[in-house]
Write a structure and sequence with these properties.
Layout lengths: L3 H10 L4 E6 L5 E3 L10 H9 L1 H8 L4 E9 L2 E10 L2 E8 L1 H25 L4 E6 L4 E4 L1 H7 L11 H6 L3 E2 L3 H7 L3 E7 L4 E10 L5 E10 L1 H23 L18 H13 L6 E5 L5 H10 L8 E5 L5 H9 E2 L12 E2 L1 H4 L4 E5 L6 H13 L1 E2 L8 E2 L3 E6 L3 H6 L5 H7 L2 E5 L9 H16 L4 E2 L1 H9 L5 H15 L4 E2 L6 H10 L10 H19 L3 H8 L3 H22 L1
Parallel strand pairs: 12-19, 12-20, 13-16, 16-19, 21-22
Antiparallel strand pairs: 1-2, 1-5, 3-4, 4-5, 6-7, 6-11, 8-9, 9-10, 10-11, 14-15, 17-18
């Protein structure tokens, strides 16, 4: 017999979102836990009553049967038939709230996915723990910055990770204690470093619930610091080597130099400029001795005083003395009735540059020596000494040592002038300076004459091979001539003077002065070409490119040429 008490207990235990109906033998529905008028959807009941016979047939052979999910309006119902001690029951569950929860859950999952993608794209790492130290979440950037896999930290206790030496030191103990932001330089077992700033997140009671840390990579910054320290050390070395360059008064605007030889000369000139001593500049005419003399003056503590220049070879010996020392009224026939101030007086407190000192007459050499020793002069026709304070810089293209041997130049004056000698090499010995000088003077004369001329690659290559007997002066004059006289804006080899063009042709001729085996002649030809190329190129690689052979061939040929020279020396001995 059917036990109503059991059914009532069952019905009372059913969730209120489930409505229970009994189906009699005729298929009629009788509500058990809800009255018809209280049931929220009368349309559902109408559907059930209309289909009660069909439901009875479906359930005839099953103890339990899930009928269907019915959608009525904005609600969804799950229908289920159940056999309870020969009694047929119909359970109707309103699953609309469940669907809503699932929908919200999907939306939350989608939002979280977007948040994760955004956080993973951040350059800085994000690291979240609770107050117990459990790692709740971290982004991909943290993995990159620390070098530690997220699998090794997520869900782990941060304090345990510190004991293991994986992360140290921590920001969380200080934040828990002070309840304030805190930053620390953190190191990882992987060897990487980061600046970590922890921020407390509080609950409604003002207690710390989470600690969110921002992790910024400083590994690259440390590398840059090391590179900066290295660069600073190099800079200090350069400063010690070129300490004179710290003087803000020196000017090298008019000096164009790329070669090591000229750079060393500039360094020496800048250095000696700080000391009040005589300097002797030697070198071929037109090599730039006057420019170096000017550099020494402008780089010295006399730079705001006069810089007087005199070419001793350009003035007649009879007039040279009065030019240097001046003269008193009536000193000689034709003298000015006002007298004249000499260059020594005009250069007082400054610098007197005596160019072509080798042309100075011997009688004046004695007087110049006295000026250097006594720092005083006498005007021509004068008897009163005039005190002066002048720095003397001299220059010559002559071999003064040879002149001393020939008794043409006083030995005592030579050693008095030659306290600091600086030799300016000819332009043919500093090939690296040719192109910069060409470009500089081309720009200079374009501006001066309102032109827009350009040097072609062909003419530059041609002028690089030229020997420049007139040195920088010849180069400067040639460029001005080309800028003025050429009819086209591009300067080509055809615009060059004949003597330069002819010198190029002559340099390409290889002469044989005696009969020799072809194999030996071929070797001599190769050697000459390689040695010629070496004068213009800095490396064997460049020589090989010009001669279209391998660098190893060039190295081997150079060794053979050197060995041949040595063998010839031994044979001659």
């Amino acid at each position: 017999m059917f036990d109503n008490s059991k059914l009532e207990s069952l019905i009372k235990s059913i969730d209120m979102n489930i409505y229970c109906f009994m189906i009699d033998e005729y298929g009629n529905l009788n509500a058990l836990n809800v009255e018809d008028e209280k049931f929220s959807d009368s349309r559902l009941l109408s559907i059930l009553k209309d289909n009660s016979t069909q439901l009875k047939q479906k359930f005839s052979s099953n103890r339990e049967y899930t009928c269907s999910i019915e959608e009525i309006g904005d609600k969804r119902y799950l229908l289920k038939l159940l056999l309870f001690e020969s009694k047929k029951l119909l359970l109707i569950q309103d699953i609309t709230p469940i669907d809503s929860i699932k929908k919200v859950s999907k939306e939350v999952d989608s939002l979280w996915s977007q948040i994760s993608k955004i956080s993973d794209s951040l350059y800085d790492g994000i690291f979240i723990i609770n107050t117990q130290g459990t790692v709740l979440w971290a982004n991909k950037a943290y993995e990159r910055i620390s070098g530690i896999s997220l699998d090794m930290v997520l869900g782990k206790n941060l304090f345990e990770l510190e004991k293991e030496g994986m992360i140290t030191p921590l920001v969380s103990p200080t934040i828990i204690k002070t309840k304030k932001n805190f930053s620390v330089m953190q190191s990882f077992r992987t060897g990487k470093n980061a600046i970590v700033t922890g921020n407390p997140v509080f609950d409604s009671n003002g207690e710390i619930e989470y600690i969110v840390s921002n992790v910024r990579d400083i590994t690259e910054l440390n590398l840059l610091r090391k590179e900066l320290r290295k660069a600073n050390r190099l800079t200090e070395g350069y400063k010690q080597h070129l300490s004179v360059l710290q003087n803000q008064n020196w000017k090298v605007d008019n000096i164009i130099a790329k070669s090591n030889k000229m750079n060393n000369i500039i360094i020496n000139a800048l250095h000696v400029a700080q000391f009040d001593t005589t300097v002797l500049l030697t070198g071929e005419s037109g090599a730039g001795k006057d420019v170096i003399a000017k550099l020494i003056h402008t780089s010295s503590n006399r730079n705001n005083k006069p810089f007087i220049t005199l070419n001793c070879g350009a003035i007649a010996p009879t007039l040279l003395e009065s030019e240097l020392f001046g003269y008193e009224v009536g000193a000689f026939t034709g003298a000015s009735n006002k007298g004249k101030t000499g260059l020594f007086e005009l250069a007082n407190e400054g610098t007197l540059f005596l160019d072509e000192i080798g042309d100075l007459p011997q009688e004046l050499q004695v007087k110049l020596l006295r000026v250097l020793q006594e720092q005083e002069i006498y005007r021509v026709g004068g008897i009163i000494p005039i005190k002066i304070n002048v720095r003397i810089i001299t220059a010559t293209n002559r071999d003064l040592e040879e002149q001393v041997k020939q008794k043409k130049f006083r030995e005592d004056l030579y050693y008095r002038l030659n306290v600091v000698p600086i030799e300016i090499p000819p332009l043919k010995e500093r090939k690296d300076d040719i192109v910069p000088l060409l470009l500089h003077f081309c720009e200079h004369f374009n501006k001066k004459h309102g032109m827009q001329k350009k040097l072609s690659i062909e003419i530059i290559n041609c002028l690089e091979r030229y020997s420049w007997p007139g040195n920088v002066r010849e180069l400067k004059n040639l460029v001005e001539r080309l800028v003025i006289m050429s009819q086209s804006n591009e300067l080509l080899p055809e615009h060059l003077p004949k003597h330069i063009v002819n010198s190029q042709k002559e340099s390409a001729v290889i002469k044989v002065n005696r009969l020799m085996p072809l194999k030996q002649a071929s070797f001599e030809l190769e050697k000459q070409l390689i040695l010629m190329a070496r004068e213009h190129c800095k490396s064997t690689k460049k020589i090989a490119e010009i001669l279209e052979v391998s660098p190893s061939t060039i190295v081997r040929r150079l060794r053979e040429a050197k060995k041949t020279e040595y063998d010839n020396m031994v044979e001659n001995d």
